[in-house]
Amino acid sequence: MQPQLKSKVRCADREVGEVSKVIMDPLSHEVSHLVVSMNGAGERQVPMGAVQAVAEDLVQLRSSSSEILGLPLFKRDDYVTLHEVEIPGLERHIHVTPGEVLVPLPELERNVKRRTFFANLTHVVALFIGLPLAFPVLKFLMKPMYAPLDNKWLKIGNIGKVKTENSGTQFEYKRKIKEAYMPEAEIEKNVWLVKATPAVLEKVYQGKDMEFLDTDGKAIWTNKKDIPYLAFSGKCPHLGCAYKWRKHKILGQVFLCPCHLSIYDASGQVLDGPAPRPLDLLPIQVSASGEVQIIDMEFKAGTKSQTRIV
Ligand code: FES
Question: Pick the residue with more confidence: 97 or 80?
Fold first, then answer.
Protein backbone atom coordinates (compact mmCIF):
# COMPACT_ATOMS: atom_id res chain seq x y z
CA MET A 1 0.00 0.00 0.00
CA GLN A 2 1.32 3.46 -0.86
CA PRO A 3 1.32 6.17 1.81
CA GLN A 4 -1.55 8.60 1.32
CA LEU A 5 -1.26 12.36 1.38
CA LYS A 6 -2.64 13.86 4.61
CA SER A 7 -2.03 10.57 6.47
CA LYS A 8 -0.85 11.07 10.05
CA VAL A 9 2.83 10.27 10.63
CA ARG A 10 3.81 8.56 13.86
CA CYS A 11 7.40 8.03 15.03
CA ALA A 12 8.50 5.33 17.47
CA ASP A 13 7.71 7.70 20.38
CA ARG A 14 4.95 10.07 19.19
CA GLU A 15 2.96 11.53 16.33
CA VAL A 16 4.93 14.21 14.46
CA GLY A 17 2.74 15.51 11.64
CA GLU A 18 1.24 14.47 8.35
CA VAL A 19 2.30 13.51 4.83
CA SER A 20 2.26 16.70 2.76
CA LYS A 21 3.89 15.42 -0.43
CA VAL A 22 5.30 12.21 -1.89
CA ILE A 23 8.38 11.90 -4.08
CA MET A 24 8.52 9.30 -6.85
CA ASP A 25 11.61 7.69 -8.33
CA PRO A 26 11.21 8.41 -12.07
CA LEU A 27 12.89 5.13 -13.08
CA SER A 28 11.58 2.56 -10.62
CA HIS A 29 8.16 4.28 -10.47
CA GLU A 30 8.12 3.70 -6.71
CA VAL A 31 7.59 6.21 -3.93
CA SER A 32 11.13 7.00 -2.77
CA HIS A 33 10.45 9.59 -0.03
CA LEU A 34 7.66 11.16 1.98
CA VAL A 35 7.60 14.82 2.84
CA VAL A 36 6.32 15.19 6.39
CA SER A 37 4.84 18.46 7.56
CA MET A 38 6.10 18.58 11.17
CA ASN A 39 3.32 20.38 13.04
CA GLY A 40 4.76 23.86 12.54
CA ALA A 41 8.45 22.80 12.52
CA GLY A 42 8.84 22.81 8.73
CA GLU A 43 8.86 19.89 6.34
CA ARG A 44 11.28 16.94 6.40
CA GLN A 45 12.07 14.54 3.57
CA VAL A 46 11.90 11.00 4.94
CA PRO A 47 13.19 8.03 2.91
CA MET A 48 10.80 5.10 2.49
CA GLY A 49 13.42 2.93 4.20
CA ALA A 50 12.43 4.64 7.46
CA VAL A 51 8.78 3.58 7.08
CA GLN A 52 7.78 0.59 9.19
CA ALA A 53 4.13 0.23 8.20
CA VAL A 54 1.49 2.01 6.17
CA ALA A 55 -2.18 1.89 7.10
CA GLU A 56 -5.14 3.64 5.53
CA ASP A 57 -4.54 7.01 7.20
CA LEU A 58 -1.38 6.41 9.22
CA VAL A 59 2.30 6.04 8.39
CA GLN A 60 4.38 4.43 11.14
CA LEU A 61 8.12 5.29 11.11
CA ARG A 62 10.91 3.28 12.71
CA SER A 63 12.81 6.38 13.79
CA SER A 64 12.27 8.56 16.83
CA SER A 65 10.81 12.06 16.51
CA SER A 66 14.20 13.62 17.34
CA GLU A 67 15.84 11.67 14.49
CA ILE A 68 13.20 12.90 12.03
CA LEU A 69 13.56 16.48 13.31
CA GLY A 70 17.31 16.12 12.71
CA LEU A 71 16.80 15.53 8.98
CA PRO A 72 17.48 18.54 6.72
CA LEU A 73 14.51 20.73 5.78
CA PHE A 74 12.79 19.71 2.56
CA LYS A 75 13.87 21.87 -0.42
CA ARG A 76 10.85 22.32 -2.68
CA ASP A 77 12.97 23.93 -5.44
CA ASP A 78 14.80 20.65 -6.05
CA TYR A 79 11.61 18.99 -7.33
CA VAL A 80 8.97 19.38 -9.99
CA THR A 81 5.39 18.10 -9.95
CA LEU A 82 4.15 15.38 -12.26
CA HIS A 83 2.18 18.06 -14.10
CA GLU A 84 5.42 19.82 -15.03
CA VAL A 85 7.23 16.78 -16.44
CA GLU A 86 6.05 13.89 -18.50
CA ILE A 87 7.44 10.54 -17.42
CA PRO A 88 5.97 7.66 -19.41
CA GLY A 89 3.88 5.27 -17.33
CA LEU A 90 4.57 6.97 -13.99
CA GLU A 91 0.99 8.17 -13.38
CA ARG A 92 -0.25 4.54 -13.51
CA HIS A 93 1.86 3.69 -10.46
CA ILE A 94 0.54 6.43 -8.22
CA HIS A 95 -2.23 5.75 -5.78
CA VAL A 96 -1.94 8.92 -3.72
CA THR A 97 -4.45 11.75 -3.95
CA PRO A 98 -4.88 14.65 -3.74
CA GLY A 99 -1.88 16.97 -3.53
CA GLU A 100 1.64 17.26 -4.76
CA VAL A 101 3.40 14.24 -6.21
CA LEU A 102 6.97 15.22 -7.02
CA VAL A 103 9.95 13.90 -8.93
CA PRO A 104 13.54 15.17 -8.59
CA LEU A 105 14.38 18.12 -10.80
CA PRO A 106 17.15 16.99 -13.18
CA GLU A 107 20.53 18.28 -12.01
CA LEU A 108 21.17 20.46 -15.06
CA GLU A 109 17.92 22.39 -14.61
CA ARG A 110 18.64 23.06 -10.94
CA ASN A 111 21.37 25.44 -11.93
CA VAL A 112 19.02 27.75 -13.78
CA LYS A 113 15.82 28.95 -12.11
CA ARG A 114 12.91 27.84 -14.28
CA ARG A 115 11.35 31.26 -14.65
CA THR A 116 14.68 32.70 -15.78
CA PHE A 117 15.04 29.87 -18.24
CA PHE A 118 11.68 30.49 -19.92
CA ALA A 119 12.19 34.27 -19.95
CA ASN A 120 15.49 33.77 -21.71
CA LEU A 121 13.92 31.28 -24.10
CA THR A 122 11.42 33.95 -25.18
CA HIS A 123 14.29 36.32 -25.90
CA VAL A 124 15.98 33.69 -28.03
CA VAL A 125 12.84 33.10 -30.09
CA ALA A 126 12.58 36.85 -30.67
CA LEU A 127 16.21 36.91 -31.80
CA PHE A 128 15.62 34.17 -34.34
CA ILE A 129 12.68 36.10 -35.85
CA GLY A 130 14.93 39.11 -36.37
CA LEU A 131 17.92 37.00 -37.32
CA PRO A 132 19.13 38.93 -40.41
CA LEU A 133 19.31 42.13 -38.40
CA ALA A 134 20.45 40.49 -35.20
CA PHE A 135 23.23 38.35 -36.69
CA PRO A 136 26.20 40.45 -35.46
CA VAL A 137 24.63 40.59 -31.98
CA LEU A 138 23.95 36.85 -32.03
CA LYS A 139 27.50 36.10 -33.06
CA PHE A 140 28.75 38.08 -30.09
CA LEU A 141 26.34 36.39 -27.67
CA MET A 142 27.19 32.89 -28.86
CA LYS A 143 30.91 33.43 -28.37
CA PRO A 144 31.04 31.86 -24.88
CA MET A 145 29.79 28.54 -26.33
CA TYR A 146 33.02 28.22 -28.22
CA ALA A 147 35.23 29.47 -25.42
CA PRO A 148 37.95 27.05 -24.35
CA LEU A 149 37.30 24.89 -21.29
CA ASP A 150 38.06 26.60 -18.02
CA ASN A 151 41.09 25.10 -16.28
CA LYS A 152 41.28 27.59 -13.42
CA TRP A 153 42.18 26.22 -9.98
CA LEU A 154 39.41 26.79 -7.42
CA LYS A 155 39.99 26.91 -3.66
CA ILE A 156 37.42 24.69 -1.94
CA GLY A 157 38.52 24.55 1.70
CA ASN A 158 41.05 23.07 4.06
CA ILE A 159 42.09 19.44 4.15
CA GLY A 160 41.71 19.46 7.96
CA LYS A 161 38.02 18.76 7.32
CA VAL A 162 38.94 15.22 6.20
CA LYS A 163 39.13 13.26 9.42
CA THR A 164 39.33 9.59 8.49
CA GLU A 165 40.98 7.55 5.76
CA ASN A 166 38.99 5.93 2.94
CA SER A 167 35.82 7.85 3.69
CA GLY A 168 34.04 10.55 1.72
CA THR A 169 34.00 14.19 2.85
CA GLN A 170 31.96 16.69 0.89
CA PHE A 171 33.39 20.11 -0.01
CA GLU A 172 31.01 22.73 -1.39
CA TYR A 173 32.00 25.73 -3.49
CA LYS A 174 30.49 28.32 -5.79
CA ARG A 175 31.33 28.87 -9.40
CA LYS A 176 30.35 31.58 -11.88
CA ILE A 177 29.06 30.36 -15.24
CA LYS A 178 28.19 32.14 -18.45
CA GLU A 179 26.11 30.05 -20.85
CA ALA A 180 25.71 31.60 -24.30
CA TYR A 181 22.76 34.09 -24.15
CA MET A 182 22.11 33.49 -20.43
CA PRO A 183 23.15 36.13 -17.91
CA GLU A 184 26.13 35.20 -15.78
CA ALA A 185 25.01 33.07 -12.84
CA GLU A 186 26.65 31.70 -9.73
CA ILE A 187 25.98 28.03 -9.09
CA GLU A 188 26.66 25.85 -6.09
CA LYS A 189 28.75 22.77 -6.70
CA ASN A 190 30.43 20.11 -4.63
CA VAL A 191 33.16 17.51 -4.78
CA TRP A 192 33.91 14.54 -2.55
CA LEU A 193 37.38 14.19 -1.08
CA VAL A 194 38.91 10.93 0.11
CA LYS A 195 42.14 10.55 2.02
CA ALA A 196 43.14 7.23 0.50
CA THR A 197 45.30 4.47 1.91
CA PRO A 198 47.95 2.99 -0.44
CA ALA A 199 45.62 0.09 -1.32
CA VAL A 200 42.87 2.47 -2.44
CA LEU A 201 45.38 4.67 -4.31
CA GLU A 202 46.56 1.59 -6.16
CA LYS A 203 42.96 0.83 -7.25
CA VAL A 204 42.63 4.36 -8.59
CA TYR A 205 45.98 4.91 -10.26
CA GLN A 206 47.13 1.32 -10.89
CA GLY A 207 50.72 2.32 -10.34
CA LYS A 208 50.72 5.27 -12.76
CA ASP A 209 50.37 9.03 -12.32
CA MET A 210 47.19 10.39 -13.90
CA GLU A 211 47.59 13.10 -16.49
CA PHE A 212 44.72 15.47 -17.35
CA LEU A 213 44.72 16.82 -20.90
CA ASP A 214 42.99 19.80 -22.47
CA THR A 215 40.83 19.32 -25.58
CA ASP A 216 43.85 20.08 -27.76
CA GLY A 217 45.85 17.31 -26.04
CA LYS A 218 47.97 19.71 -23.97
CA ALA A 219 48.77 18.51 -20.43
CA ILE A 220 46.98 20.55 -17.75
CA TRP A 221 47.99 18.74 -14.59
CA THR A 222 49.19 15.39 -13.26
CA ASN A 223 47.79 13.76 -10.11
CA LYS A 224 50.72 11.90 -8.57
CA LYS A 225 49.91 8.29 -7.74
CA ASP A 226 51.28 8.51 -4.19
CA ILE A 227 49.54 11.74 -3.09
CA PRO A 228 46.79 10.41 -0.81
CA TYR A 229 44.06 12.93 -1.60
CA LEU A 230 41.43 12.10 -4.22
CA ALA A 231 38.75 14.53 -5.44
CA PHE A 232 35.67 13.12 -7.17
CA SER A 233 33.23 15.23 -9.19
CA GLY A 234 29.95 15.59 -7.25
CA LYS A 235 27.91 14.28 -10.18
CA CYS A 236 27.09 10.61 -10.63
CA PRO A 237 28.45 9.39 -14.00
CA HIS A 238 25.16 7.59 -14.67
CA LEU A 239 22.83 10.58 -15.21
CA GLY A 240 24.41 13.36 -13.18
CA CYS A 241 22.54 13.15 -9.85
CA ALA A 242 24.21 14.18 -6.62
CA TYR A 243 25.38 11.21 -4.56
CA LYS A 244 26.28 10.84 -0.89
CA TRP A 245 28.63 8.94 1.42
CA ARG A 246 26.31 6.48 3.14
CA LYS A 247 26.28 3.26 5.15
CA HIS A 248 25.10 0.25 3.17
CA LYS A 249 23.75 -2.78 5.06
CA ILE A 250 26.05 -5.24 3.28
CA LEU A 251 28.81 -3.19 1.69
CA GLY A 252 29.53 -0.86 4.63
CA GLN A 253 30.40 2.77 3.87
CA VAL A 254 29.98 3.59 0.17
CA PHE A 255 29.15 6.41 -2.20
CA LEU A 256 25.44 5.91 -2.95
CA CYS A 257 23.48 7.67 -5.65
CA PRO A 258 19.80 7.82 -4.64
CA CYS A 259 18.49 8.35 -8.18
CA HIS A 260 19.03 4.84 -9.55
CA LEU A 261 21.10 3.33 -6.76
CA SER A 262 24.56 3.23 -8.26
CA ILE A 263 27.07 2.33 -5.57
CA TYR A 264 30.79 3.15 -5.59
CA ASP A 265 33.60 2.33 -3.17
CA ALA A 266 36.07 4.84 -1.71
CA SER A 267 38.25 4.53 -4.82
CA GLY A 268 35.25 5.47 -6.99
CA GLN A 269 34.91 2.00 -8.53
CA VAL A 270 31.36 0.85 -9.33
CA LEU A 271 30.12 -1.83 -6.92
CA ASP A 272 26.52 -1.97 -8.09
CA GLY A 273 23.88 -0.19 -10.15
CA PRO A 274 23.66 1.21 -13.67
CA ALA A 275 26.69 3.57 -13.58
CA PRO A 276 28.73 3.00 -16.76
CA ARG A 277 32.09 4.09 -15.31
CA PRO A 278 33.80 4.91 -12.00
CA LEU A 279 33.36 8.30 -10.32
CA ASP A 280 35.13 11.07 -12.21
CA LEU A 281 38.44 11.98 -10.63
CA LEU A 282 39.49 15.65 -10.74
CA PRO A 283 42.88 17.39 -10.66
CA ILE A 284 43.68 18.22 -7.05
CA GLN A 285 46.49 19.94 -5.18
CA VAL A 286 46.91 20.45 -1.45
CA SER A 287 49.26 23.17 -0.19
CA ALA A 288 51.59 22.84 2.79
CA SER A 289 49.03 24.74 4.90
CA GLY A 290 46.29 22.33 3.84
CA GLU A 291 44.48 24.56 1.31
CA VAL A 292 42.74 22.32 -1.24
CA GLN A 293 42.37 23.40 -4.85
CA ILE A 294 40.69 21.54 -7.69
CA ILE A 295 40.04 22.13 -11.36
CA ASP A 296 36.28 21.96 -11.76
CA MET A 297 35.60 19.53 -14.62
CA GLU A 298 32.39 17.86 -15.72
CA PHE A 299 32.06 14.86 -17.99
CA LYS A 300 29.25 13.60 -20.17
CA ALA A 301 26.92 11.36 -18.15
CA GLY A 302 25.82 7.90 -19.21
CA THR A 303 28.90 6.91 -21.23
CA LYS A 304 31.57 4.34 -20.53
CA SER A 305 34.36 6.66 -21.62
CA GLN A 306 34.97 10.12 -20.17
CA THR A 307 34.14 13.10 -22.42
CA ARG A 308 34.75 16.45 -20.80
CA ILE A 309 31.96 19.01 -21.28
CA VAL A 310 32.83 21.70 -18.70
S1 FES B 1 22.17 9.26 -11.69
FE2 FES B 1 21.47 7.25 -11.95
S3 FES B 1 22.52 6.19 -10.43
FE4 FES B 1 23.21 8.16 -10.20
Answer: 80
